[in-house]
Design a protein that fits this description.
The chain is of the alpha/beta class. Helices cover 46% and strands 18% of the residues. The chain folds into 2 domains: 109 residues, no CATH class; 316 residues, Rossmann fold (3-Layer(aba) Sandwich). The chain is built from 14 helices and 13 strands. The chain is elongated and about 85 Å long. The two termini are 30 Å apart.
Length: 441
Amino acid sequence: MGTIVFILAALIEITLAVYCIATKSNQKRTRSWIRIGTFATFFFFTLISVIEWSFQWKLLAATLLIWAIIGVVSLIRKKEEKKEPKRVGIIFKALAMLLILIIAMAPALMFPQYEPPQMTGSYEVATAVYTYTDDSRIETFNNSGQNRKVTAQFWYPADKDGTYPLVVFSHGAFGIKDSNTSTYMELASHGYVVASLDHPHHSMYTVDTEGKFTMVDTSFIQEVIDVNKGIYDEETVFELTHKWLEVRTQDMNFVLDTIIENTKNTDSDEVYQLIDTNKIGLMGHSLGGAASAQVGRDRDDVRAVINLDGDLLGENVDFRGGKYVINDKIYPLPILNIYTDDMMKLFAAAHDAGYIDANTLILDTAPKAFMVNIKGTNHMSLTDLPLFSPMLVSMISNSVSMGGGVEADKYYIIETMNTLVLEFFDCYLKGEGDFDSEGTY
């Protein structure tokens, strides 16, 4: 929709400029009526939901409103043109208007209007956001001396019908807690409570419940980019990735412990009273997948883990003699690894070089480890970002040197992933059915 609106608006400006040159006039009255008509049309399409009102359209709406007001004032004043306009002036004015239009349309072009995947469950979904303060940790990404705060958003069944399994989600590097909203909604519609974390300074941005806005740490961005570009030696990569994981796992353990503690308090909010703490699953994308697998290994109260395209970095427990030392203890939980073509290529390259990666070792040794490859995908395909902003996906993939072309339909990818996620957690958290979906899709 954003592209269509931009093309139509650009055509109007170009046509108007050509008409002005042909008639050797600025066509103030015509220009004014077009401005007013354009705003009225935009307003009408918003009212009938052809354009779904959201933050993407606010800048354009403000621009069109200003132009419409200028048009009304111009019609009222009825000021006559005193001299014939120069062609250069008409062209310059048209280019200036196009530039303003591009700026006003940027949010709609960057974040196009889209239809979210349909939920298949029977429950209506509610949501709530909380910010927790960890009194045991001081924030290390700045010098404020304040305790670290972690914000989590919950998606849960709006209907009270007993208690439900809890799934805690960790986003990838530069991700946000909303990165897999379609998955959270699908799980909640089938009777799960999902809590997704924002990891401050690892998340692209975080807004806590007090309205404090925190951007991603620039040093963290550069470290991730440099690791993906192969700039560091393997020992440095080991040290950096474990530094990142420590932040993630501490956040996840803290939020899990806080949630569990709140479930014991009969005066706590509704969402906590809906949680069955005997049925806890973890899930994450990329670095969040690695953190989820590590927390799952370390805790006794987690029953299942899903890793979305993450390299299981926590399984590399040391670096000695120029090699990674992989954890030789069998992974104790059911774990589902859903991989894109990007990750499969990395594994193939490692095998060709004679390396044994932790992901493959777990798959070969753990009694309930599963691997799925969804074909025609890149690293960001297992999030909602390809729906929310295809342009941003391309920018991120290029900047961190990850992400080949995507051939599969993005709705097919997300719906296939969500089906696998639901079936896996139904099996290992609810004890419903068998999970045997190992292979290629």
